[in-house]
Design a protein that fits this description.
The chain is mainly alpha-helical. It has three domains: 24-105, Endolytic murein transglycosylase (Dna Ligase, domain 1, 2-Layer Sandwich); 111-175, no CATH class; 195-306, no CATH class. Helices cover 49% and strands 8% of the residues. The chain contains 14 helices and six strands. The strands form three sheets. A two-stranded antiparallel sheet has the order 1-2. A two-stranded antiparallel sheet has the order 3-4. Strands 5-6 form a two-stranded antiparallel sheet. α10 packs across α11 (228-241). The longest helix has 23 residues, at 8-30. 28% of the residues are buried.
Length: 342
């Protein structure tokens, strides 16, 4: 049986149709796509994320204009299951296939492990992050007081100290100050929003701000976590009785920019006229005095029940607690005698 031979006209139509189809294919998958905003954009693929989840997020962030075209491009290139976890810098004007190549073959941004100490002051946190991952400590501090930026984090405060959760984090090198602060703030909000903590705050009749303020004082008082709930109990007892808190960390907060040896407090410091001076003004200070960690926050939420109203350092890293002022004075004399003997 003889094969049918296309006429020149049919061949021409076929060539035009093929060329048209090829042109659409090239235009769709090889031509650049553009997004709005600063470039390059950082995009994170979380460990275990599927290709569909990645494409959905790329589309939601406006990095790609079509989910369907991206999926077809992945099918054509065989990239359905090869995306790698990490943070990538995606340049503007990139095609679907080139984007897939970056997410499957490119190297994600390097990370660095950074441990943030519980109870860290905002200035020391900024300096630590500058040293470890190269951000600007000056910009970090400026953003910490920027009302528009703070509002964008969903917070209604004047200063971010107290609202950034100390923990051990992996940070991507090249992260901006905004990205770092947002992550620390998000982690704190996630921790405070636990249902049992929200319920407990209502039981105590306290706000997040008050809990963080109390927790910051607790974190400033001791490095011994096992003491935190007992220290919290002392301060709650004093508040209930209408006594001044007389918390040394609040004085250290006031003078921390003035001296190198901030742990040294003089009697004249107790007379400084500041709302943070808990030797002069009753109740909690107006804001946190450091960034408290999880242990101090839990202690502020669940203070130990006892009848202690005083405590003083024992000279060995811990504290001695007392019920009466006379007992406290004896403990103070013992501590001073030990200190003088050293």
């Amino acid at each position: 049986m003889a094969l049918a031979v296309m006429s020149k006209k049919e061949l021409y139509i076929f060539a035009v149709a093929f060329g048209f189809f090829l042109g659409i294919l090239i235009f769709t998958f090889y031509f650049p796509n553009y997004y709005n905003g600063d470039e390059p954009v950082k995009f994170e693929i979380k460990r275990g994320a599927s290709l569909n989840e990645v494409i959905e997020e790329l589309y939601e962030k406006g990095i790609i204009p079509s989910k369907t075209n991206m999926k077809i491009a992945a099918l054509i290139s065989g990239s359905e299951k090869n995306v790698k976890a990490g943070v990538y810098e995606i340049p503007n004007g990139i095609s679907y296939l080139k984007l897939l190549q970056i997410l499957t073959e490119g190297q994600p941004l390097p990370q660095k492990l950074v441990t943030i100490q519980e109870g860290i002051w905002q200035e020391k946190l900024a300096a630590l992050l500058e040293e470890q991952i190269g951000i600007s400590s000056a910009r970090f501090m400026k953003l910490s007081r920027n009302k528009e930026f703070i509002k964008s984090l969903g917070l209604n405060v004047d200063y971010l100290e107290g609202y950034l959760l100390p923990e051990t984090y992996y940070f991507y090198l090249g992260s901006t100050e905004e990205e770092i602060i947002k992550r620390l703030s998000d982690e704190m909000q996630k921790y405070l929003s636990k249902p049992e903590y929200v319920k407990r705050m209502k039981e105590l009749g306290m706000t997040e701000h008050q809990i963080l303020t109390m927790a910051s004082i607790i974190d400033g008082e001791s490095n011994v976590v096992s003491e935190f709930r007992r220290i919290a109990g002392v301060y709650y007892n004093r508040l209930k009785r209408g006594m001044l808190l007389q918390a040394d960390p609040t004085i250290q907060y006031i003078v921390r920019h003035r001296r190198k040896k901030v742990n040294k407090i003089y009697y004249k410091d107790l007379e400084i006229d500041s709302p943070f001076n808990t030797y002069k003004y009753p109740g909690l200070p107006p804001a946190p005095i450091n960034n408290p960690g999880k242990d101090a926050i839990r202690a502020a939420l669940y203070p130990e029940k006892h009848d202690y109203y005083y405590f003083v350092a024992d000279g060995h890293g811990g504290h001695v607690f007392s019920r009466t002022h006379s007992q406290h004075l004896r403990n103070v004399r013992r501590y001073r005698a030990w200190r003088d003997s050293r």
